[in-house]
Amino acid sequence: MPDGRPNLNGVWEYIGTANWDIQDHSPAPGPMWQLGAIGAIPAGQGVVEGNEIPYKPAALEQKKKNKANWPAEDPEAKCYMPGIPRATYMPFPFQIIQSNKDILMAYEYASANRLINMGKPIEAGSDTWMGTSNGHWEGDTLVVDVTGLNGLSWFDRAGNFASDKLHVVERYNRRSNDVMDYVATIDDPSVFTKPWKISLPLYKRAEKNAQILEFKCVEFAEELLYGKYKKQPTK
Amino acid sequence: MRQRVLTSLMVLAAVLASVLLVTLPVIGQAPATKAKKSAYKPPKLPWGDPDLQGLWPGTDLIEVPLQRDAKAGERVEVTEEEFAQRQAKAERTAENDRVAYVAKDSKVGINPPGYWLEHGRPQKITSLVVDPPNGRIPELTDLAKQKAAQAKQAKQGHGPNETWEDQSLYDRCITRGVMGSILPVIYNNGTQIVQGPGYVAIRYEMIHETKIIPLDGRPHPSSNVKSYMGDARGHWEGNTLVIETTNFLGDKNGIGLNGGGTPHSADMVLTEKWTRTSPDMMEYTATINDPKTWVRPWTVRMPLRLNPEFPLYEYACHEGNYAMFNMLKGARADEKAAEEAAKAGKK
């Protein structure tokens, strides 16, 4: 960039299975046999550093409950905004618009977006799905401090979660033209015994016409959410 | 609940707007539909593009009707006298907003106090539509009239709360459409421009849309890629950003407030122009060209004021759409009650 900062502009996407489960996992059948192998859950190597998430005992029970209630209870299935960090590694691209001031991140999934304030840090107002983001540069790394998250998002389809005490510090470092390293430090003293880290590479979508498209998923979730309350045909 | 309140407020706003029109007969002004060429030179970004960045909410224009009162003819501005009336009305509204939260003799209702609504600044302009010169949306084509009649007929005997599909795309928190996302309404009018090299992005607060506009001259995708907000491409004409948007889903959103009004077709071409006319004013125009729906193109114009203090919130509409659950549950409960009452009556 003209200001000497690394240029993070572009359409980025993670390739991997973190959205299925941020931890190491074996392949498994999906919830709908009708989809056959298409609906099966692929195996994956996790993106959690050291693989273990330091849940407190009660929180671990909640995680298991979440998993048992998947997919119906997964906010992704409901088309709710994915929160941070999940927005980063969903199987959808996101676009970074880096201005001379703030940095916009626009995610294809659910038209979610957030503006990273690069000026004087602002305090989070009320809690939100995408949080309040304050960024600064440490050398060539963009560091984004995210607070004010409402804790209603999950980390993945395996039910990993946090609370509204969640504090995420993200680090974006463009390793090369095509790859950007992403590290997120996750801290939530009400759910975890200590902070832990997610780390994964983001890949630049290299198509000449790469762009994020519209994925307004509300329509795809309405039957799931409201189906049982619609008028049933009279017998 | 929020949605229902919101819908009620929209009705209220529409009523207020029409009252305003009736009480303000407009006299004698020359038409001036074409914006004057601005001599103002906006600051440039480090990579050379004009700097349009900032928050440009449409809040000032809330009370300006989309279409001009037919009685006003081709008059684009109100008289000084009428403007004074608008100012007096704005002062009365501000005064009302300062009164106690609950008036002594107020009845229980679902609407919030008036000061929850945002109010505009008194404007001289008579309508947001500036072309055709009468400030009115052009006549619908025969095809559009036919579609509207069919849509009305299809709704006969259905609703209002059989399924979520009985509600608008707005009340379902899907989208307000490409124009509904920028036309000023009762609250959450945040419109924010962020620019990067080769791109302009526009954020619309309510139902959180982001329009990303590549400036590199790439073609639109094929017509198989359709969306509510369409596919935007931009270029600079001097210091004016020109955005052409195509690839729409047809027969979904209208061009009115919050995506209401007659739905446009999939073939609509929307041409928007953003020009800074002073350090804190933006001239915005949008020309709607959809020969399948309207007999001629038409243009909306809005002078937008920079407001760096405007708080743009996350508008988690769908996530908080309790009204949808409640409306459907309520309707089923009513049906059950009616069924039981009928049974009891038979005995």
Explain this structure.
The complex is a heterodimer of chains A (235) and B (347). Chain A is mainly β. Chain A has one domain. Chain A is 9% helix and 25% strand. Chain A has helices at residues 57-68, 218-226; strands spanning 10-13, 94-98, 103-107, 113-117, 132-138, 141-147, 167-174, 179-187, 196-204. Chain A has a 9-stranded mixed β-barrel. In chain A, β8 (179-187) and β9 form a beta hairpin. Chain A starts with 9 loop residues before the first strand and ends in a 9-residue tail after the last helix. The model of chain A has no long low-confidence stretch (mean pLDDT 97). By secondary structure, chain B is an alpha+beta fold. Chain B has one domain (2-160, 167-319). Helix content of chain B is 24%, strand content 18%. Chain B contains 5 helices and 10 strands. Chain B has helices spanning 2-23, 80-97, 142-155, 177-180, 322-346; strands at residues 54-55, 129-131, 191-196, 199-204, 209-214, 231-237, 240-246, 269-278, 281-289, 298-305. In chain B, the strands form 2 sheets. A 6-stranded antiparallel beta sheet of chain B has the order 2-10-9-8-7-6, with no helix packed on it. A 4-stranded antiparallel beta sheet of chain B has the order 1-3-4-5, with no helix packed on it. Mean pLDDT of chain B is 88; it is low at 1-35. The interface between A and B is large, with 43 and 47 residues.
Order of helices and strands of chain A: EHEEEEEEEEH
What is the general shape of chain A?
globular
Structural class of chain B: alpha+beta
Low-confidence stretches of chain A: none
SSE succession of chain B:
HEHEHHEEEEEEEEH
Backbone structural class of chain A:
mainly beta
Count of beta strands of chain B:
10
* Helical content class of chain B: 10-25%
How many helical stretches of chain A? 2
**Largest interface summary:** A-B, 43 and 47 residues
